[in-house]
Amino acid sequence: xxxxxxxxxxxxxxxxxxxxxxxxxxxxxxxxxxxxxxxxxxxxxxxxxxxxxxxxxxxxxxxxxxxxxxxxxxxxxxxxxxxxxxxxxxxxxxxxxxxxxxxxxxxxxxxxxxxxxxxxxxxxxxxxxxxxxxxxxxxxxxxxxxxxxxxxxxxxxxxxxxxxxxxxxxxxxxxxxxxxxx
Length: 182
Hints:
182 residues, globular, 13-stranded antiparallel sheet, 2% helix, mainly beta
């Protein structure tokens, strides 16, 4: 199993006393990711559980945790969006911000969310999309990101690193976790 721990940093100064960390693991075509948000959760907007989560667009307009995956050096990449409410989406993009389309390999994406006063954890375990899982010899790279909506409605953008002058989760230099083979 190829497992990497991560810690996200905000783009620019953040008024939120928050840490975002976790682990990403790939093994035999299966991805496991755990996000942990710790700190003053009352300072951010977190949607309440929605019961049965649905596939939805525009999740990044509020608090949303994200994983981007690609074959190293290849154009196409995948974006997993996870809302603490239970809503989700997975997109395939042909190249940098081009050809965005829902990934048809998923009809549902069940994940668990646990919330306590000072901590929220979100755990996902799912198969990789077939085009991402093959070829078995391809190295994968990942970007782990989060959009956090502050209690005043403003958004902050968190990532492993911020390689551009603006927050840009699609910038391939931000895909800085190297995971070896899927």
